[in-house]
Amino acid sequence: MWKKSTKVTDPTAAGQAVGGTEGGHPDDKGIKKKSKVPGVMITQFQEELPEGMSTPDFTRKPIALTIQEGKTAIFKSIVIGTPTPTVTWSRTNGEIVFHPDVCQQKYDESSQQHTLEFPKVAAEDADTYKCFASNEHGRAVCTVVLNVISVGFSKTKELQKNQGEEPTDFRKSLKKRNPDGSREQKPMETEEKVWEILLSADKKDYESICVEHGITNFRGMLKKLSEMKKEREEEISEFVSHIDKLKHIEVNDDDCATIELDMDLKDPASKVFLYKDGVMVPLTKEDCDGQRHSLKQVGKKFIFTIKGLGKEDAGLYSVDVGGCNVFSTNLKAPDVEFAVKIQEVKAEERGDAMFQCVLTAPFEGVSWFGKKAPLSNGEKFEISMSEDKLIHTLIIRDCAPLDAGIYAAVAGVKSCNNWLIVEADKDPKGKKGERKTTMAGAANPEELARIAKEQQERYEKEMAEKLEKAKKLQAEKEIADAEAKLEAEAAKKEAAEAKAAAKAAAKAEAQAKRAAKMAAAQAAKEEAARRRAEGGGDGGAGGAGGADGADGANGANGADVGGGVDGLDEGLEDEFSDSDDFESESAEGGSAADGAEGAEGAEGEEGDGEGGAGGKGKRKKRAGQLVPDTVVGDEDEEIDEEAAKQEGKAARKGKRSKKKLEEAEAAAAAAAVDPGVHFHAGLSDCKAIMGESAELECKVSSEDCKGIWYKDGDEIKVDAEGITITQDGSFHRLKIHKVTEEFGGKYKFEADGRKTEAMIVVEDPPRFVAEDLETFKTPVTVKKGQKATFKLPFVGRDPIKVQWYLEGEELSDDSNIKIEHTEGCSRLLLTKLQRKDSGEVKIKLKNEFGTMEALTQLIVLDKPTPPMGPLEIVEASASVVDFKWRPPKDSGGCKIDNYILERNQIGRNTWKKVGPIGPEAKYRDTDVDHGRRYCYRLRVETEMGTSELFETEDIQAGTKAYPGQPSAPKVVSAFKDCINLTWSPPSNTGGTNILGYNLEKRKKGSNLWGMVNPPDEMIRSGKLCPVKDVVEGMEYEFRVAAINNSGAGEFSVPSEFVFARDPKKPPGKVIDFKVTDSTYTTLSLSWIKPKEIEGEEDEAKGYFVEVRPAENTDWDRCNTNAITMTSYTVKGLKSMGMYWVRVTAINEGGEGAHQELDNYILAMPPPVRPRFTDVKIKSFMIVRAGNSARFNINFEASPWPEVTWLKDGVPVSKKVTISNAEGMSQLLIASAERSDTGIYTIVVKNIVGQETFSIEIRVTDEPKPPGPVELDENVPGTVTISWTASPDEKKDDRLHYMVTKRDSHKRQWHTVADRIFNNKFTACNIMPGREYQFRVYAKNDMGSSKPSESTKWLIPAKKEKFTVTLPESKPCDLQCAPKFIMPLKMHAAPQGYECYMSCAIKGDPTPHITWYRNNLSLNTNTNYFISNTCGVCSMLILRVGPKDSGEYKVVAENNLGRAECTTKLTVRE
Question: Where is the composition biased (Gly residues) (predicted)?
Fold first, then answer.
């Protein structure tokens, strides 16, 4: 042991140099210092520090963590030192992998904190970590431990156990991706597939997936799936910003399957891959016939298509972006085919159609498609299947023409389709035809059943054969396993016996050899002693030392034999002692490997003799996994003993220096690490087209690597005909210049023991020769009625399907179409061509390898169609007409040579030929007259002829602008022989000066207008125009028209009628002007016509009414035109506003004097005292609790009254809603309660008076039933019924009770008493032997409650033997004076309600009953209902009023005495 010194050698800090360079101590030594923080070791590189400088130190060191796997682990530290230290981290086992997903080192400037973060700590992250803080003066270091608690199964740990990998290497391998972004291709295990299916499945499908794959721990599955989903989302987020609308794989009706999803890629250049069961599927970007897998991208939508589905396409498909799986979906391919496919169906309109198919095996997942759309079971489509799930049926109900199309059935990955043809109703008669019950397409059910039965029997037979085969294989496997087990046991037993025998022989031989060796050693010792005695060299001593086995390596060569002997003896002892661990070792020194170890041990410095064949026999144990240098056979194979002996001898004799041995071990380690040449990119399958070139390419890891190409196992020579083999760096290529059939096959490239394979499939799709194709593309031009021929040779493997199309419509042989096919050529002949046949001609070739198309144009020449409108007028002035038109819709396929133009002047019958005007669709006509209208005819002229006519609309040359209307003539003055008029000129003069006017007149009642001025003499001015041609006393109206250069314009609006007479005097004031009625907004007036005073005041012809608010000084005229009536109603007044009113009479002489009212008028109705206008008003209202109470009342009053509602004399609460309108008021209780019961009073009051009305509103509810009913017999023959009061009795003072009875004889319930206000009643006439039962109801204004029922009451009848015993007759005196059994009760009843009083009296003879109120007899008063039944006296007051209050008394009298009972009735308001 070495003694520790204060100066220790310390490893150089990261980033520092060793040896006197900057940053390191000259001898890489440092001085230890203590830190204030425990656990921190500081190393100072210099004995004395410069001023102001300091070594690094920790103010906060990291804290050890024990954390669960998958959580986030963070180590935090804060360091100080001048200059600022650099912080680094390391771990004991391995290196730290700094990656955003594994580990990150960060520094926060604000808190000056250094952190080491593990985002998702894994089990392999558990280790001891060191944090180093270094600067040029020293270094501080502290250690911290990270413990990770593993959760569940760890795939990483298992791989580490099996492969001995480092955790970092494994995590790197998980993230390993190819340079092109794809992930490593390897077949997926079943467990991986299940998890991928669950990751992309809907939650509703979890249970079925677990059942299918035998997962029983559903809760554990959900927990693990949640964690996997989080990890998957984080991976996806690196490449995809958004993903949705994931559509699982679906099989379509054309044997295609599609996968759809919407992805928003962060990098549009990211590559998208498709994998099937972990193996990449080659994709084409465009949909073509040659490839089965394609990818189509439309915006953010990605559509993957798989064509020509087969059973081999079943599997798990995964979509990857940048090597990250984003979506997985499973395609299942059940073993099912179509035994009978669906057939074409022709159905009648409004009838039904049926499609049927038969499967080869039971299957219930058949999907139906109609015109590419999936169908579901409903009213229109009925989908069904037979019980054996073999016959599947689709019925289309009520077929319409729109239902025609292709319908398909899809079963697994197989499909079949056919047409539905709907024949339209031949005689629809404009209405929808009647529904038909016919079923089109229905196959013979017996035939389908027979086929289905055959398929079922075949299916069951196949399943039975498979089951029998599986049982047979299982039995054979069990037999083979048993035999193998027996053979293994026998071989093991023989090996054990042979081993034991070999051990015994080897031991005996070893003992013999050892004895011989010891004897030889002894002789050698004696000889050496003799030589020393004789002055020999040191070699003997060295040899002796070698014999002891301690320092055998230092001995001379001559002594090697002795050392080796001892080493061999001891090594053999060790070998035999360890024989249980190494069963295959030789009896003579072990294997060659052991011999090598022995040699190594013999050369050891300490002479330990490690190994089996040399040294002291101490067995060396290898560290790490044992890797054999040669191939070792099975345990049952025997080892060549002689070879083992020779190898053991060679090992004992061979000696190598330690340096050479270390070099050999380093070379072996390098060879173990170096994997050799490997492939970066292997060969890919290639489809080659016959006659074209093809190329295979692969990339290896070394540019110096040479390789060999093979085809179908045969090596391809470099100078092979038609093939060129090249190498460009690490790329190796094989190019076939012209592919023929013999080039198809399996190609292999092998380099340095590694190989990659690919298939070249030679295809021969249809193709065209380039020259023939160019000739075919030349358009074909023919004239109408002629024929056209199209011919195109082609090459390709037969059979080739040839189709011709014209404008997208397939052609077939017809009267005008003839198609001829010969070997390698096809010809199309079209005859009697029309212009409409022009268009695109296409030939389409198709065989098993692909499709080829070629296009050309067919042009049929014909006469052009007429030019088209509408006409565009560019200019139409007084001197020129310029217009354009549209070219013909079809020029007949020819160039337009000329337009032929003809012109016609409107009003003439001749057409003038202007002539050809050229090919431009426009014309400028300068030979026109101002104001004339012209019409033109156009024809198109081409080399094929002239078109039909196109005639334009009329065009006017220079539009005339007439003046507008003058103002209406206004009468200036009128006399019996002359009327003077004036008017204003028109605002629109037509662009020229007004030359004059034409004036017309018309008598009132006539329809004829007459000219005032002569036609050739216009009126020059309209300032003042006298009209003298009038008749005295006649009434006239006038109109005027302006004239300019274009002519006379429209006449003006007629003037007012005017009499031809001398002017009149204005009328006088109206008489008796007064107000007849008024409201808040109107005022009715009347007056008498003013008197006529000859020479002073003439007759009034009309009147104007004017009003003026009291606050204004201006008068407002109410009527715009004068009225002739002597009454008028002014409207639109302000309520209660003050107005002044006046009336003015007018006539032809003007307005007369104004007549005003003496006082202002208020806009209000005449004063009216409030009065309720309803004929019948309810004064009592019953409302159920919880319902609304609404009461409306109408009234009239003027002026507007004040309306107030009171409840029981006080204003109503806010709960009550009051709505007032004109002449009406409403009270509303939205949700009435019992507390709302009361008397509501409305008070209507204005300045004239007031009026009130009261209504009682009673809020109640159906009463609760009374309590238990008890029966008791106080008097024989009677039953006293008593009951507990209803809970509502205290709330409702109008609550009373009703008693019903039922006996065993009648069995019907009937009422025995009603309106009982107490809780007891006595029922009479109870007969023995009958069973009675009673019910008691609580009643109020809302109705009755549920009954409370009594127990059954029975008075048993005593049936004794009938004996007649005449007892001694004793006089029985039952007479007694009247006596009250039940006295009267005190009563307090509300006003308007009824009141019921009752009492019970006995007495014999029957007493006479008299009722009194305030000592006044009531027996003869009809307002009281008095009854006496069996001594029960009662009195009913139907409507209690204040007059009924007082003292009531009942007096009972007979000849034996007199009794009376009194009570008091109080009436509540």
Answer: 536-549
CA distances from residue 1462 to 1380, 1412, 1422, 1452 in whole angstroms, order as listed:
11, 9, 21, 12
Give the total number of structural domains in the chain: 11
Q: Of the residues 707, 723, 740, which one is the last residue of a structural domain?
A: 740
pLDDT at 828: 92
Q: Write the DSSP string, 1402-1426.
A: EEESPPEEEEEETTEE-TT-TTEEE
CATH assignment of the domain containing 1022: 2.60.40.10
DSSP state of 1260: E
Secondary structure (H, E, C), 173-199: HHCCECCCCCECCCCCCHHHHHHHHHH
Report, as an integer, the average pLDDT of 645-665.
44
Greatest alpha-carbon span in the chain? 201
Q: Is 283 exposed, middle or buried (0-12, 13-18, 19+ CB in 10 A)?
A: middle
User: What percent of the residues of the chain are helix, what percent strand, and what percent coil, each to the nearest 5?
Assistant: 15, 40, 45
Note whether residue 747 is domain-resident: no
H-helix or E-strand spanning residue 670: helix 658-673
Instruction: Tell whether 1315 is covered by a domain.
Output: no
Burial class (CB within 10 angstroms; exposed 0-12, middle 13-18, buried 19+) of 1423: exposed
Answer whether 0.70 is exceeded by the pTM.
no
Structure tokens at 274: 């498709």
The span from the CA of 40 to the CA of 59, in Å, is: 10
**1145 and 1008 part of one domain:** no
3-state DSSP assignment of residue 812: coil
The answer to whether 764 touches 796, Cβ cutoff 8 Å, is yes
> What is the per-residue pLDDT across 1340-1373, written as a single tens digit (0 to 9) for each?
888 899 999 988 888 776 666 667 777 777 777 7
Place of tokens 């069996």: 1430
For 308-372, strand residue ranges (E) read: 315-321, 324-331, 338-340, 345-348, 352-359, 367-370
Listed residue (818, 897, 893, 820) closest to 858, CA to CA: 893
Q: How far apart are CA 987 and CA 999, in angstroms?
A: 18
Q: What is the DSSP string of 958-1020?
A: S------PPPPPEEEEE-SS-EEEE----S--TTS---EEEEEEEETT----EESS-TTS-B-
| Pair of tokens at residue 546 | 């070698």
Tell me how far apart the alpha carbons of residues 1007 and 984 are, in angstroms, rounded to a whole number: 25
Residue 131's Cβ-count burial label (10 Å; 0-12, 13-18, 19+) is buried
What's the pLDDT tens digit per position in 864-911?
A: 999 988 888 888 887 888 999 999 988 888 889 999 999 998 888 889
